[in-house]
């Protein structure tokens, strides 16, 4: 899928122009960074690196692709296509922040260096791969933060995804950002993401009566016991529940005084929780454990609380251990905001199934615009990045330096300057320093390179990094911007460059 | 990519439950339809059928997939997996409206019939494939309608797409909906979509001086003449332009009185149009034709008009035929609304490059929710659909009938009823009748089926159908809803079913 042809045509046109001018082998570099955090937040999670590295590792334009390019660029000389056929990424270098890291605007996520014609051909695919992945991962992380650590987050987005691959990517990056499972079987197989599912309303309505259940026997998990008529066992439990004092009005007997208040409520609950309880109790008799219920409409906060009450009452009344801990899943068009609202109301939901809105939110946010500019290699412009940690263990500031500057040292004062605002600067004495850009593709195969970690490891990094942020940076409401700075030397260089390139007005 | 595992886990769980209950071979049917048109419009273009049919044609769960399913459904009996291994879609029937058709809410786009367990496994992939495709195609068609027939529409969405496949699908369905070309080379190769591209700002800035141009010779297209120093030829033209009366202030000499007004304008124009003109004129000397310019920032309406003036002046002054018809492309974050605004202001843009917002608009629109409900085959619920055309050639109304009803006849009065509102009904005397649902997958391979047309043919259908709609249905502002109706018989049946399924309150 991600072939070198997954590219804007003009990248090939420009590669040709470089080649024609004899400039195609000149070294060039581009940084991939963004200007604003998405979702109104003050942080972003970096996703997509693994796919970028796999892309360059396999970068090769085959004969069939060459002949297609030839057909769409009929005015290019043959020798250019001979050149295209030879290129690969063995003389390209990629430095990147580890995938799953918390990252901030202006800081390069990737630094790509190599022959200008080759680097030009990497630009569009990299932007494509990183943009969507980072938005999805960030969105997922935001859901995780608002849901809290103890809740299960399930991704149910396949139906509403932007095509097949959109669905698979959604599952992958939601998991990376802190979701626990997906309903998407293909994503489960490809990435080892845990799978979850329930059943649809259509399934419920496809059974018209108990007579349709042909095989009524149920064996216990260990095979030692057989219930010959599981349907009767369920019906038996249903009667018991009906005659339980606390359940009058919920389990079939209508209760005059509650009728008005419960009409809408009962429409959902009547066909849901009571039948579920009867089946779950019968299963319990046979040594099985029912997993839980899913609420898909109505007032989720209220229903989850009422459901929990019933489960707890059953645990007490019929001495069924853990029946009160039955998992309650909610899945009605949830998003970050509705999760937040549920938290404020109070609820008894254990797991959230999130689908419809997951990908909608993403695309309202084109502002995480990745910027890139292939330009000549200029040493002072090649940057290294350090994250400086304070006394309390929180990261304080990211600082960019030229690659040729000495790195900052622990316990040594360093001046951090705002990249554009002359008056904003601060001395920092870091207690710990993390070098952010690592070499993931060294060009020279003898050099060491960072391992590409598993999806599970990347997910752990993401959750760990989020937990280490100072809470006000990652809170939903009015988060504090995290500081991004440059060294004094880099500041001077940037401003020299800026002045030399800025147009000067002329007054006559 | 689109394997049978691209599915919600619960579809497999339900297939298991059907199998376990011995119901898996019972015939079931589902209609795929939507409830509301997207983008605040009153029409939708149906996309994704081709991919659905290819999906069922290749539907087969292989051994590796079976063993994965076994691992995630450890409690299912072995015989179920043996059954899964055997299934294909040879006993499934798919009727559908031709892809690229203008379609309306409540009308089934596809009717899928087959063994319930198999049909259940088709539901999620079909929704995934049709939802995104139809949104993209509809969005593209809306852009086409607002841009007008004569303008070029270019899709530049790859960088902002939701992953690699999202980009390829965007190119495909934008073309289907009436775009003319894409920048995405892979999509060009896969679907034969015309390719277009320009160059980036980075390319411009990578050349520091004329000295960097090593090879200054240019041959004429037929090879008969050689210009040894094309750079001098361009510089020569630049001087001539500078000394042209009408271009003072634009071509290098600053004009006091215009300075204030043109400061921002000149910043763009100075480095753009004048240099372009000099190169284009030099190319013209050598027998080449320059194609045009791209405006990517600033006031597109104003700049395009000023640019056109310059091109026309050059055509006149230097007698260069067609120089005034130079193609002006605009590409600065365009969407339906900005196109509409440009039209209102007046402009000289010939082509629009649309990228960033193309996919954003899509995902603000989750309301094109596809609905589906696998249920028992019930003859009266299997519907046929007819589009009835009036005297002026416009479609008047779509009518759904039971498949067993006689079809409507030309020039014969038929009662069309609103599906839910008892009082809304009208007699229609159709002048032409189109049967909308065609058989694309007959199950029985001996039966005839509709051909899957090429992307180009589907695009033609889309543009033709749009041009045949009564204009008030497709206009941007306050469009008139198109009428969708049911036959008298189907109305009665629906309401019988409705009453029999609706809960009845009980008062004691």
From TrEMBL, chains A, B:
Residues 382-493 form the Nicotinate phosphoribosyltransferase C-terminal domain. Its EC number is 6.3.4.21. Residues 5-131 form the Nicotinate phosphoribosyltransferase N-terminal domain. GO terms for biological process: NAD+ biosynthetic process via the salvage pathway. The keyword Ligase applies. It is an enzyme of class 6 (ligase). GO terms for molecular function: glycosyltransferase activity; nicotinate phosphoribosyltransferase activity. Transiently phosphorylated on a His residue during the reaction cycle. Phosphorylation strongly increases the affinity for substrates and increases the rate of nicotinate D-ribonucleotide production. Dephosphorylation regenerates the low-affinity form of the enzyme, leading to product release. It catalyses: 5-phospho-alpha-D-ribose 1-diphosphate + nicotinate + ATP + H2O = nicotinate beta-D-ribonucleotide + ADP + phosphate + diphosphate. Pfam families: NAPRTase_C, NAPRTase_N. Pathway: Cofactor biosynthesis; NAD(+) biosynthesis; nicotinate D-ribonucleotide from nicotinate: step 1/1. Catalyzes the first step in the biosynthesis of NAD from nicotinic acid, the ATP-dependent synthesis of beta-nicotinate D-ribonucleotide from nicotinate and 5-phospho-D-ribose 1-phosphate. Helps prevent cellular oxidative stress via its role in NAD biosynthesis. Belongs to the NAPRTase family. PANTHER family: NICOTINATE PHOSPHORIBOSYLTRANSFERASE. This is Nicotinate phosphoribosyltransferase.
């Amino acid at each position: 899928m991600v072939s070198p042809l997954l590219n804007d045509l003009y990248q090939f046109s420009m590669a040709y122009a470089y080649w024609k001018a004899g400039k195609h082998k000149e070294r060039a570099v581009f940084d991939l960074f963004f200007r604003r955090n998405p979702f109104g937040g003050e942080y972003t999670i970096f996703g997509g690196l693994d796919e970028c590295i796999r892309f360059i590792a396999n970068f090769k334009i085959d004969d069939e692709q060459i002949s297609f390019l030839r057909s769409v660029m009929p005015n290019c000389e043959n020798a250019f296509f001979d050149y295209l056929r030879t290129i690969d990424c063995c003389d390209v270098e990629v430095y990147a922040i580890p995938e799953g890291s918390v990252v901030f605007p202006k800081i390069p996520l990737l630094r790509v260096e190599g022959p200008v014609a080759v680097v030009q051909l990497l630009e569009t695919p990299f932007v494509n791969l990183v943009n969507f992945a980072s938005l999805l991962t960030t969105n997922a992380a935001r859901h995780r933060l608002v849901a809290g650590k103890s809740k299960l987050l399930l991704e149910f987005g396949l139906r509403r995804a932007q095509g097949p691959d959109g669905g698979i990517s959604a599952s992958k990056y939601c998991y990376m950002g802190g979701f626990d499972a997906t309903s998407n079987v293909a994503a489960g197989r490809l990435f080892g993401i845990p799978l979850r599912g329930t059943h649809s309303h259509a399934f419920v309505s496809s059974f018209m009566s108990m007579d349709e259940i042909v095989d009524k026997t149920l064996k216990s998990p260990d095979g030692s016991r057989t219930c010959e008529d599981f349907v009767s066992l369920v019906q038996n439990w249903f009667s018991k529940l009906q005659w339980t004092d606390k359940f009058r009005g919920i389990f079939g007997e209508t209760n005059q005084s509650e009728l008005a208040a419960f009409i809408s409520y009962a429409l959902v609950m009547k066909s849901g929780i009571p039948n579920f309880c009867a089946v779950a109790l019968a299963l319990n008799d046979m040594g099985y454990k029912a997993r839980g219920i899913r609420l898909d409409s109505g007032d989720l906060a209220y229903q989850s609380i009422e459901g929990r009450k019933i489960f707890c009452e059953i645990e007490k009344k019929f001495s069924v251990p853990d029946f009160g801990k039955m998992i309650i899943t909610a899945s009605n068009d949830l998003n970050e905001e509705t999760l937040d609202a549920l938290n404020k109301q109070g609820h008894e939901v254990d797991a959230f199934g999130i689908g419809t809105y997951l990908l909608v939110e993403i695309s309202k946010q084109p502002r995480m615009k990745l910027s890139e500019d292939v330009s000549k290699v200029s040493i002072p412009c090649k940057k290294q990045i350090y994250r400086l940690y304070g006394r309390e263990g929180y990261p304080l500031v990211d600082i960019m330096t030229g690659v040729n500057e000495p790195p900052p040292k622990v316990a040594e004062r360093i001046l951090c300057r705002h990249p554009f605002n002359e008056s904003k600067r601060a001395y920092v004495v870091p207690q710990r320093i993390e070098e952010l850009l690592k070499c993931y593709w060294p060009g020279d195969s003898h050099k060491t390179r960072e391992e590409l970690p598993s999806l599970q490891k990347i997910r752990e990094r993401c959750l760990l990094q989020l937990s280490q942020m100072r809470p006000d940076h990652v809170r939903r409401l009015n988060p504090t911007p995290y500081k991004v700075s440059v060294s004094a030397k880099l500041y001077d260089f940037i401003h020299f460059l800026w002045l030399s390139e800025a147009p000067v007005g002329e007054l006559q």
